[in-house]
Amino acid sequence: LLERDYFTASPGGCALEWPGECSAGYLVSGSNQALDEDGDVCDVAPGQAPVLPSSVDHARSDTADERSAEWEEDSYIYPSLTPGDVDCGDPFWKDACTSDFCAKQNAATEEAGRVMSIPYLISALSSPPLGHLVDRVGKRAKIAAASSALLFVVHLTMALSSIPPVLPMVGQGVAYSLYASVLWPSVPLTVPRRLTGTAFGVITSLQNVGLALFPLAVAGIYRSGGGRYVPGVELFFASCAAVGVAVGVAMNMLDMRQGGRLNGVASEGERGDDGEEEVISFDREKDGDFVAVDEDEYFSPLT
Questions:
Q1: Counting beta carbons within 10 angstroms of the beta carbon of residue 262, is it exposed (0 to 12), middle (13 to 18) or buried (19 or more)?
Q2: What is the mean pLDDT of the chain?
Q3: How many Cα atoms sit within 13 Å of 265 on the Cβ side?
């Protein structure tokens, strides 16, 4: 989000009035404004990074300011300075030479962090009611395919459009919540009861394999994209979501042929003539077939 929305590249055609001097901080005497090609003050948008010096050549011994003792290096020599060279954890950059750049970067990082928390906040708040909804309506395979489709739209939007990221982050949170609400409850419906724990273990293992490998893939795409996440990384995630859609469609077709267990619901008995509600029934595997059992038997630790 920093690269895409909150801390984009400095405006083109702008340079500091004294390009070889620091832009802001206690090493700057007076001001060193960014000017465009016509000599006017450069218009830097709120989401753009301030203009950096084209080069830096400073040593701790060159200044009598006692604050230079906090610098992490004895000298800073950059014939061609890039944003990647600026370490805002170093007091030289943060306070002495490029304080405007670092201050704006820190503010942008905080804003991006708040927006990135949206999917997790939505998941935390919506997962319980969505899980209850799935218990009532079923449609697990259909919801799984729909959540992958939503993720595909979200990542494609982030890759190819410039709309603000809040709406895509909301969509991502909804997709995550929906998928989690149908994934785990589907396990007992698709494997023999005696293998439920094994199935959960396999799923968790595969999930962690993905968590281990995907950062490596993202790093490779980042390097091959010239040190940029957008659009390459977002297109990668969109392609993963597209695979999820295809798997979801195949899963729905298979579920239809297998009797619709994933898209079905637990059967709740209707009220009898005496007004009493009959026991909820579930399916349990017995000798390779699923048979109806009542609620007490299903949850009994002795069965």
A1: buried
A2: 86
A3: 13
